[in-house]
Amino acid sequence: MAEKVMMLGNAAIARGAYEAGVKVSAAYPGTPSTEISECIVKYDEIYAEWSPNEKVAMEVAIGASIAGVRALASMKHVGVNVAADPLYTVSYIGVNGGLVLVAADDPGLYSSQNEQDSRAVARAAKIPVLEPSDSMEAKEFVKEAFRLSELYDTPVMIRTTTRLSHSQGMVELSERVEPEDKPYERNVAKNVMMPGNAKKRHPYVEYREKKMAEDGCGFAINRAEYRDPSIGVITSGIPYQYVREALPDASVLKLGMVNPLPRGLIEEFASRVDKLYIVEELDPIIEEQVRSWGIRAYGKELLTVQGEYSANMLREAIGGETLSLTPARDVVARPPILCPGCPHRSVFSVLKNLKIHAAGDIGCYTLGAVAPLSVVDTTICMGASISSLHGMEKAKGKDYIKNWVAVIGDSTFMHTGVNSLMNMVYNQGTGTVVILDNSTTGMTGHQDHAATGKTLKGDMVPAIDIAMLCRSMGIEHVVTVNAFDTKKLAEVVKEETARDAVSVIIAKAPCALLDKTPVKTQARVNPDLCRKCGVCLKPGCPALTKGEDGKTFVNDTMCNGCGLCVEYCKFGAISLVDVRR
Q1: Concatenated DSSP letters for 185-238?
Q2: Is the CB of residue 80 less than 8 Å from the CB of residue 103?
Q3: Is the pTM above the cut of 0.90?
Q4: Helix-, strand-, coil-residue percentages of the chain, each rounded to 5
Q5: Fewest CB atoms less than 10 Å from the CB: which of 50, 100, 434, 453?
Q6: For residue 172, how far is the Cα from the chain centroid?
């Protein structure tokens, strides 16, 4: 009997890659896709890497496919934007070994700056999309994606969502089946996408889509479940689970392939039900196509284009039930906040005291936008802090940005910040860039990158020296300072923002969660010296609270002895004490 185990959707995808015989996996960490690579790396048969960004990861996978092996690239939905350049072109090139892209969307915006629908990208790129609805399908759909990739000479996207990525389901394990490497043959007409060759490949792409739409009517992953014909629902992915829970008697057309759509199967299903609904999270990708064929269906006029769906939502919108759910009462709001001892808090507290605005970036430090720090004014996408600061300077002049800096983490800097900084230097800009170097990719769970000196496999490698990299661009003013040395940091910020040049401050200190050494010292308050001024509370450290008597209290289960509050207290009421036993 085959072994069955409970698996996260992401772990199941990794298992599917293993069973499919994948040999190369490349990714950049991004919630909700990160665990795919963290699980894949456990299979020694697969080469797995953290690439510096998603574009590079996509290109690595493409290269492996051209060489003749099965390759996987995985990323979150906004990472697909970064990878779009090679993705659109490899649609024309096709594959040698199978090529699969996992795109993890984030309905509900649990960890992202937008709710884009990757199916729209796939339609534009003219590549097929498979959408699993549970962990077992996640594993099996990976294997099916590689089969289709090689059968139809196309890259294939597997679209997941946060709910699938991070929920668990029972998965039946199979053995790894490793197909023979495809021989590489030089084929300039297929693999070199200059205009003349691309013009000849485009007709094949159109033929391929038409052929897959026709063949898809017979794919096992597209299935009609006929029950009560009065209500029919076309759906896919996680929403299928909500449909089955909310409308157990309804007939359902479950689409495993959502691009291209199997028109013949959809038309047949629509003809056999009295009233047709289309249930899909985010954009009306399926709905708009079905309606364009003259099929009457109900969709987004009843259901939102925002956020996640639920069974209760469908019961109300389609089932006609009126639900009176009792809202939770007296629930204390818990806004996101930087961890105790986070070096970003120290940097932001200095910037706040100096009344400095920050053009922000993607990372934990985005929390510098909210109270009580309230320093970060903009956040757009990876690497945009430096570019947007440069744009401000070109729009308003050097004096305008004297009280501005760009803040960017070390991993984000390696992702796309390097190009932005290069642009600032090349185009004779001015401005100060603060690289918040905590030696990890903190927001997604402490992954390594090119400047940490360790690979996804755990191998020790030479680490990129960020300061030397900046100097190699011709930047004369590059200063490294301890993020917790607030006095020195303040001096450096004032000095560098006053320059008519590009300058870089590297505020360096390890992530508090990454530092596994036992806590040696903790802050303690002398109540006799505390003046109740509250200055120590301004940086917003969650380890510090105000007691009933108005005096500061330190929670010793949270404090890791960073010493920031000690520097803020001007009355000597807070000190660090040795807590080693």
Answers
A1: ---HHHH---HHHHHHHHHHHHHHHHHHHHHGGG-TTSEEE-SEEEEEEEE-TT
A2: yes
A3: yes
A4: 35, 20, 45
A5: 453
A6: 28
Whether the upstream peptide bond of residue 260 has omega within 30° of 0, thus cis, is yes
pLDDT 10s digits, 373-421 = 999 999 999 999 999 999 999 999 999 999 999 999 999 999 999 999 9
Tokens linked to 478? 């590059």
Confidence at residue 393, expressed as pLDDT on a 0 to 100 scale:
96
Report which DSSP code applies to 50. Answer: E
State which H helix or E strand residue 117 sits in. Answer: none
What is the longest distance spanned by two Cα atoms in the chain? 82
Whole-number Å distance between alpha carbons of 310 and 246? 9
Q: What is the distance between the alpha carbons of residues 48 and 24, in angstroms, rounded to a whole number? A: 6
Q: Which residues contact 522 (CB under 8 A, 6 or more apart)?
A: 554, 556, 559, 560, 561, 576, 577, 579
Residues 6+ positions from 190 with CB-CB distance below 8 Å: 93, 94, 197, 201
Closest to 100 (Cα-Cα) out of 50, 52, 152, 136: 152
What per-residue string of b and e applies to 286-311 under the rule 16 or more CB within 10 Å gives b? Answer: bbebbeeeebebbbeeebeeeebbeb
- Residue for token pair 């450290």: 541
